[in-house]
Structures are given as C-alpha cells and as structure tokens.
Amino acid sequence: MRSGPTRILLVLLALAALFAIPRLTGNEYLLALGVSFAMFSVLAGGLNLVYGYTGLLSFAQVGFFGIGGYTAALLVTEQGWPLWSAAAAGGALAALVGLVIGYSSLRLSRHAFAIVSLSFALLCMIVARDWVSLTRGAMGIPGLPVPTLALFGREWRLSRPADFYYLLLSFATAAHALMYLVVSSRLGRAMRAIRLNEPLAQSQGIDPLRYKLLALALSALLAGMVGGLFVFYLTIVDPSIFDFYYTETMLIMVILGGPGSFWGVLASSAALAALPDLLRFTTDLRMVLYGAILIAAMLLFPGGVAGWVQRRRLQNWRRPRVNAS
Amino acid sequence: MTALLEVRGLTKHYLGLTAVDRVDFDVEPGAVVGLIGPNGSGKSTIVDCLSGFQPADGGRWRLDGRELTDLPAHRIARAGLTRTFQTVRAYDELTLLDNLRVAAQEEDGVGWLAALLRTGRLRSVEAAAEARSRELLETVGLGEYAQAPAAVLSYGQRKLLAIAAAMMARPRLVLLDEPVAGVNPTMIRRVERVIAQLNAEGATLVIVEHNVDFIMSLCRRVIVLEEGQKIADGPPGLVRSDPRVLAAYLGQRRAAELGHGRA
Amino acid sequence: MDPGFYLQLLLNGIVIGCIYALIAMGLSLIFGVLEIVNFAHGEFYMLGAMLAYFLTMNLRLGYAATVLVVTVSAVCLGYVLYEALLVSVQGGGFERSILLTLGLSMVLQNGAVFLFTTTPRMIQTQQSYANVAVGDLRVSLMRVLALALAILAFAALYLILYRTRMGKAMRGVAQSREAALMVGIDPRAVSRLAVAIGIGLSGLAGAALAPVYAVHPLMGASFVFKAFAIIILGGLGNIAGAAIAALGLGVLESVMGGFLPVVMVDALVFSSMIAMLLVRPQGLFGRGVRV
Asked: What is the ipTM, given to two decimal places?
C-alpha cells in the first residue's frame, strides 16, 4: 500500500486538478458531472460509514438527504436565512432525526432495522408529497433563489454552474476529511470491530449502540448538508429528492468500492458518477446494469474491489513460510 | 481476604430446564480456578451470565465489591471482567496488533474528541498499548504474526490470540471458555504454559473446560458442576476422588458403556 | 350515507385484501423458511400480470388457461430463482440476500420499463365489463374471479402446509431451523419448495389482478413495500398473521379511500409499521419464526 506522505501528495494533486477544471474548460456538462460526483460521494461515504464500517444496512440515507434539502429550501425562502446556515440547519435536523430513529430501532434485529430505515425513507417521500402545507406537495418548492455566500469578506453570487462546482467540491472535500478523521481513528477501529464481531467487541468494553448512533448521526449530518446545498443547484426541491434511485446508486457505489474501504468507495463514486453519462445509457438500462452488478457482487465478490485487494493480502501471508512456528 | 469475585445464588432457566441452579462460589485474587462438569452441567452458561451475555434469572455477583448483576456486557468488561468465547472470536480482517489494540481502547480513558484530534495524550496511550500488544503477542508466541490479518491463524493460534486480547485491558479477572477444546496436544501444552505465565504475572483466571486432565494439572482449585448445581469445590486431588464427582462422570460413562442414553 | 356504497367499498377492499394476502403470504413463507427478505417479490407479481396481459391480448387465451399458465410459470420461475441465486446467499448474512434481491428487483423492474415503457395497459376482453349482481350491488366479474382464485389459493396453501409432509417440514424449518435439521429435513428441498410456492402465489396474484387494474412495469414496486409492512404487522414469518393483516389493510384502504386521499392511508400504513416495530416487534400475532 502507498505510504502516508505519498498518499497525501496524490490526494492534493487530485484535488488541485479537480479544482482547476472550471478554469481549463467551460464545458458545463463536465461541471455537472463534477457536482454529481461531489454530491454522490458524500452520500456514498456516509452510507459506507454506516454499512461498510459499522455493519448496519440502512436505507435511510436518502431520507436525511431530502430532509436537509427541504429544510434548507424552506429556511432560505421563508425565513431569509443565508445558505450556509440553512444547509447546516438541514444537516442538524437530519442528524437529530437519525438519532431518534437509531435510538429507538437499533435494539431490534438487523432485519427489522433495515426495514425501519426503508419505511422511514418511504415515509419521507409520502410526507413530502402529502403534507402540502409544509412541503408544498408534489410540486415542491420551485424557483429557489440564487444563493449568496459571504466568504473572505466578499459576497459571492452562485449564479454559474462553476460556482456550484466549487461549492459542492469544497463541501465534499471537507466532508471526506471529517469522515477520514473518524474512520482512521480508534472510533473507526471500534466501528469495524462492531461489524466484524459484535459480541467480541462487547466483551472488550465497546458499547455498540454509541458507535452505531455516531455513524448514523454523522452520515445523516453530512447527507443533510449536501442535500441543503444540492437543492439550490437544482433550484428546486420536490418529493423526487427522496427517490429510490439515489439509494440504489449509493448502494452500488459502496458495494463496488468495497464496504469499509474509504478510498474504494471514493473511487467508485467517481467512476459511477462519470461513467453512465459517458456511456450514454438511458436511466433504465443503467439501473439494469447496476442491478446486475449488485447480483454479481453478492454472488461472487461481497467485498467489492477493496475486498479483493484484502484477499490478495491474505494470500501473501498464507504463502509457505520458511520458519513455521 | 475478601474475594475478588463473589457469586451468590446464580440461577438460569432455559426452556423449562434449570441450567444453573443457585450456584455460589468465590474466587480469590491470583487464583486459577477450574470449572468442570459433564455436558449440560451449566459451565458455559455461568460464563455467559457472569459476563453479561445472557440475562441471569436469579442471583448476584460482585467483582472487587462492585455489583455486576444485570449490567450489559460492555459495562462488565469495563469493570474488569473479561472473557473468551467457546466459538473462538477474533477480528479476522484486522491485524493481530489491531486485534489487541481494539481490546484495550475503551479502558484507557481517552475520549472521542481526543481520539479525533490526535492529542498528545492519545498518542502516548496508543504507544503504550502497542508496546503491551507486542509483549502479549510474544507471551503467547504469535509475535511474528503481529502485522498479519487474524484470518491467517490456525484454530489453536486463534485461541491464543483470544487469550491475549482478554488480557489487554489488564482485567481483574478473566473467564476462559474452553481454551483448549479442539486443539492438538502440542498446542494444549502451549496454552497451559501461557496461562501459567499470565497467572505468575498476577492474573486471576477462571477456566471452563471439558478436558479434565488439563484442569487438574493447571488449576489449584477445581469446581465441579452437575446439572446446574455445584457438587464439589476444592484442590484437584480432593475433587478427583470425591464420590459425587466420580458418580457424575462415571455415571455417564457407565451409562454409555451399557448402551443407555443418547449418543 | 348509502349503505350500498360502503358495501361496495368493503367488497372491493376484501378483493384487494385477498390479493395483498397472496403476495404477503408468499413473502412471509420465504422469510420464514429461508430468512431472506425478498426485495424482488413485487416484480414477480408484475411479471405475472404482464404475462397474463400478453397471453390474453396477444394469444387470445381464455381466463382459466391464462391463470394456469401464469401460475405454473411462476412456480417454475421460483425453482429457477432459488437454484440460480438464492441458494448461494442463504445463510450468508442477511445483507447479502437483501442486496441480491434488491439487485434482482432493479434488473426486472428497469428491464421491464426499458422493454415495455411505463404506459399502463388494460386487459380488454368481452368479460372485462361483465358484472355479477350481489343483491342490489354490481360487482365486476373480474373481481369476483380474483376473489375466487385467492380463496382457492389459500385453501391449497393450507392443505400443503398442514396436510403434506413437505408442508409440515416448511413449518418446522420456519419455527426452528436447528430442530428441523436434527430431525433430518432436507433444508434445500424445503427452501426450494418455499420459494417456488411464494413466487407462484405472487404470480397468481398478478394474473388475478391484471384484468382488474392497469398493468405496467412499476406495479410491483408499491406492492412490495406494503407487503413488508403487512408481514411486519402480522408478525415476521407468521403466515396466517400476514393474511389477516393483509385483509385488514385491503379493507382499510378501500373504505378509507372512499373518503380520504389514498396517500394518507399509505402514510398511516408505514407509520403503523414503524410504530409496531418499535413497540411490539413480534407484530400483532407474534412471530412464526423462532426468536
């Protein structure tokens, strides 16, 4: 594996390249892909935290995403909040909801938790569609205003696609930095322990509930915030923000990259955000492909790309040794 | 001298059977106590109850005067009572060092914020943990595999790793659940040496086992269970010739010889 | 306040409830015996309906023949599904099976959309508009036939589960896998049959409802989530409980739908499911599966 400093250098180079893209090309299509990548990478990263590291299969991510989106949109349009605060509030609300759901349902079996998380996401969609007084119903809240950001003493109007590109990329970078901080620390180690062998972890003093709630709340916070920003890029928030399509896509990203692999999921987010449009698939065929990949992965490589790398490592250790003990 | 572990009236029912029936015993600091008995005598159930993995239906137990009854498993571990599992448990994907580091991390008092911010305190604590991990790995003879994923270990080696992990957080008392079951004779001797060494360094151990010879040679005190009840408690020589113990074991064997009872 | 109106709603509700029951019971059976949550269950309902449409409209097959062909095909498809996919993930951790069946659902659903577009199709035959007189009411013939099919299916399922050796084996495995293995039941054969029956029920439901409502590739999606709610409410793995909950849901939807927007009923359903899981995880009727 690459050593620490080399890796940091590579990451910085990649970031520099990504941030330079709008300077090099005005191709709006490329910028749109970039926004999509940034957004999905945060969603998939959060799901990785919950499922890949802590072992909790959850369908609730999209619910947090949409809650953040609606909250931010409402705060800006109805209360005149600035964008950052509105998005932060969206994230905070999503995290709170995540804690409530988690605390009440994590003592259930894992089947039940998965189904609760699924129903939560469905319920969000239904509420968005039907609680018209709150969410304006099926039409949603169109015509979200061009947001302004106060940054470095100036007011930035986010009117061009490139502006949103920078905004979401910056957020995604910060979000991943935070997630990396967590997963590379002993907190991440505890989460992995819980996924790998929960009873063993308990017998070592690790409280599974605390870590599961942490993973859930953090992923909800980040999903909510990115949702709050993303809806302004779309200039509309409507019930389709809770579409199962997001869930399916982020699941594929995690499965392909390898649950529990930070870099693997990041890489697969990039690949999958860019690929479909490059291949010019229709959405339906793309979903058929994703479904087929999911099936193949479950049958053949449950660990994704990163899992395959793990197995190679294992094989290296298993080669005949000169001094057997 | 007050006992390290005091167990009073421990009771557990399973599906209409009484698996553990009002069992009392004390464990002195520094002791190595064996817990044996025929199949179904309740040995593993006792371990599960004391360590918080099964709710007890009755009774209380205290470690160092501290009440542990009905606490969740992770709280009991943090109070200083650790255990190994019959089905050997390890974090297969993690290295041996990481396996041990995880085992210690909840005990050292470093909070989440410090962990995230990588404070100096965290670094020194982690350095100490790493040193201790290597030390323990050497003790159990797995030093060369420190960086290997636990999945490469053989069954017997995993048992040794589990013992090392149970020792990482400097527990007051360790419950070993069948540490040599399914293990070859060479490895058995190795486990015996490891346990003896750990005890010499001050560990208090309670060992549940089927392998009566192993227990008799290693433990200075043996408790015998039969059908959930304690029927003997004393030094190996005495227990070995106790008529009730003989009946419990011989009774089963004779029954098997005569072809009665289920296989 | 026309009692005829209520009765009409009630009857419709019973019909739809019976269809829900067919789907939910199949799902429950599969969960009980294999411990797999079949995400793709709704798609087999959809495939059954689409096949029925094709057989009726393109091949001009009669009702009985259509139903028979669809049901048999569904049962065979169930066998294939088990042997090809499910057997490999059985017992391998439930996430694998959820994700596998989710993938299958994505393939089937989006494949169908790609091939047939989302335009709903209606089965139009001479009998589509025939009515049966029940007292003062008129009930569409197709609904009555659907109800009859459902009842037949329940009876058949009961007979299989309680009167045949394999059926008893299935119940045994659902209650306690270890005990069943000890007694010598072949888990593979039992699982295979459970999946075949479950998928068969789903396909049958599709054939039964195809003439009643519109047929389109997304019709399974909404059903499957409701089916999850139903099996939770009825108790995971409890087949009879699923049937009762399904019936109740169908009637509730129909009766309330006469006065409220149906969407509020949806919200009520999912909220109740969440509430049930939090308050009484074993459902209204307790688990058919071992805890």
From this structure: 0.91
